[in-house]
Amino acid sequence: MQSAKIDFISKYNNLVQFALSSSQDFPNNLCEFIAEEYEFEAAVLVKIKENSFEFLGKSDNAKKSYNRNSQLGCSGCNAVNFYSTETKFDVNPNCGFQASDVILKEGCLHISVTDKERVLLKIAKKKDFTKSEWDNILVVGEAIRNLLRLWMGKKGSLSSSVSEIVSSIGPELRTPTNSIMGFASLLGEEKLSGSQSEYLTTLKENAYDLLALLNDLIDLAKLESDKDISAFSNVNLKQFVQEIVHLIEEKIENNRIEVLTSIDDNLPESVNLNAQKVRYILLNLLTNSLRLTERGKITVSVSSSEKNHLQIRISDTGVGISSDNIKDIFNPFGVSEFYTSNNGSTTGLGLTLVKRYVDFLNGEIEVNSSVGKGTTFNLTVPVEEITEIEKQISELPKPDENNKVLVIEDDFATSKLLANYLNKWGYDPTIVNSAEQTLKIVDDEQYLAILMDIVLPDTSGLELLQKLREKKNTKRTPIIICSVEAEQQKAFLMGAVEYFLKPINYKYLVEVLTHYKLRKDSNILVVDDDVPTLNLMKEAVEQAGFKPVAQSDSTKVMDVINNIDLDLAIIDLDMPEVSGVDLIEFIKSNDQFRNLPIIIYTGKESYEADIKRVDGLFDNLLHKSSTNIEDLQNSITEMINRYEEPSTPEEIKGKKGTTKILLVEDYKHSQIIVTRLLKKNDFDSIVVVENGQEALDAAQQQHYDLILMDMQMPVMNGFEATQRIRELPDYKEAPIIALTAFAMKGDREKCLDAGATDYIPKPIDSSEFIQKVKYYTENKVPVKQ
């Protein structure tokens, strides 16, 4: 017991030290301390502003997406809407501000730190807050207030760290500086005396230096406060370097300095890097060399010391810096006194920011200098090579996706693990821990899929499964069971689509989700001039789990679908102006829709002549008088399922003028995903086998234009199968794309070494996958030996 008390005091003392130092990490440390010592699942601290919250810090288990750039708030929050100087605790189940990714019992602790500044501590726990806990939380609130006052210290504000002060006032100072420069330029157009022109030139140069200093201060403050949001982009390496060198050459007077450039011919044409940061680094290093050099030369060399690393060497023949002073070169204003020229003016913070940027990019920088001999900077920056196919992929538009997944799991550790994986895969998890919470939340929200345990605290998971299947919003939502109980047969009979025994195989789980994500993204065109019937058709599509594209005016259909990827069309025959028959002919005459399956859904009594006109252009005929909404839903699902059915080797053996693809994959949902993607993009000749031995046998029986090879399979894995297939005469140059789940560093190289032409990690990105398939089936790409 004595030991526990000492441990608590030790941790509290550390917290006090953080507060006294005004450390920016204090709010995070405070939240972690509160969560750990008082056994809360998560804690988030925010400053209360007029109509919103300003994020200050969080515990490790708090909502992953929260950071200093988060826009937070709650329209119904009493703390925001009503000012109070008291420490109060409140539990509001409808609060829009959550501390955790998991739906838990959460409460808000309102603390008035000063007369003007208030904070909110959001805390989460598994069970309801008891009366004694309420009282204890208020006591903790008083301690937090005192710690926050310590933390504020000389700052005098919750938000005013040095970095944040600079971030706030920097732009305000930049505006008048820009005005000075602007008016100085206007003044320069007037008739001035020689001395006046000289004064004006000095004024403009100093204003420019001040603006550059402000910009560097603001950038440095952003790095310090983790608010830097500059992004990586694809650049043409040679062009990128030459543009920077050209900017430096423009600043050289009387050709007194020669700038030489050497770029290794073996470097890739395009790379992925943080262009903004690297441009700043190179400009500052070159400007530094310019100011240290009275006359002579500056050399820029670009090469690659190791794979995916760019090595840049900038050397000059300037005055150099002594070994005693070189150690201060990256400190603010560390080398200003050694400058021999004002050309290419830099701020005293330039090299400081260079070092911070290099660290930010996980790079390295070294400097060597000798007095009278010059200075050399060696810079190493991580980059990624951009191949031609990757360049095409990067230019593809990103879809606007709604990937909400409901997780029903009462074990906190399991739910957190699931949430982490779902976030990593690009899904948006909502986690509940009881049947009561589940039934309440599904009435207001629709989900891509539901993951659930069958062992729950308040009811049987199988009973909940049955109730979900009876609700409108979840009737056709894919439900995936993850449980320690072996109840597969019952679960499948009650409507589950997949069953995982714990521990969960996450490699397969992501494939199941991807499968149903692709299905849900299916666009189905419904056309009927009778609006009530159109609404019923639209509802049938939605209840079947797909996206309707509804249109009552048949004259507008072709314009509406022009840029839409359709999976199915349901069309009435009897419509004014453009009849259903005419519309079907229009659609099928468009190359984009020549393979689009069509269901005719009509109430017309005499339709034989119409059917004769479009014979071979439609796939199914349903009459409104004998087809209810359930029948229509089933027909839609059956038609969409056709995209998931591969061909047999016998079916494609005699086919000519078609691209034959062999998919080697042992997991059924992965087979469905790939087959569906290929068929939707007019690749119809697809054969599926389940292991490397079957792939080798299939390749020996007939030639395939492309092989898609999973690398982890039973009997014979993909690495061995690829090597064996490469030994066959017909497959020396045939494209083989490796597919690998949970890709690790070095997997790409291992696949290429085994003989693969290219590599795609799982879960598969649909756009990237199809782009690569088209690229390798349309272009003969030599295999790397």
What do the pLDDT scores average to?
80
List unreliable stretches of 5+ residues.
Answer: 340-347, 396-400
Supply Rg.
33 Å
Which topology of the largest domain does CATH recognise? Answer: Heat Shock Protein 90
Strand-residue fraction? 15-25%
Tell me the name of the CATH homologous superfamily of the largest domain: Histidine kinase-like ATPase, C-terminal domain
General form: globular
The top level CATH class name of the largest domain: Alpha Beta
Determine the structural class based on helices, strands and strand pairing.
Answer: alpha/beta
- Output the number of helix runs: 27
Gross CATH architecture of the largest domain: 2-Layer Sandwich
Strand order, main sheet: write it out: 3-2-1-6-5-4
Our count of domains comes out at 6
The count of β-strands is 29
Q: N- to C-terminal separation?
A: 67 Å
Determine the fraction of residues in helical runs and give it as a percent range.
Answer: 40-55%
The description of the largest β-sheet is:
6 strands, antiparallel
Write a structural description.
The structure is a single chain. The chain is α/β, with parallel strands linked by helices and 785 residues long. The chain has six domains: 12-155, GAF domain (Beta-Lactamase); 162-224; 233-386, Heat Shock Protein 90, CATH 3.30.565.10; 404-504, 3-Layer(aba) Sandwich (Rossmann fold); 520-643, Response regulator (Rossmann fold), CATH 3.40.50; 646-778, Response regulator (Rossmann fold), CATH 3.40.50.2300. Helix content is 41%, strand content 20%. It has 27 helices and 29 strands. A six-stranded antiparallel sheet has the order 3-2-1-6-5-4. A five-stranded mixed sheet has the order 8-10-11-13-12, covered by helices on one side. Helix 1 (2-20) packs parallel to helix 4 (131-152) and helix 11 runs antiparallel to helix 27 (766-778). The longest helix is centred in the N-terminal third of the chain and has 31 residues, at 194-224. The radius of gyration is 33 Å and the shape is globular. The model is unreliable at 340-347 and 396-400 (pLDDT under 50).
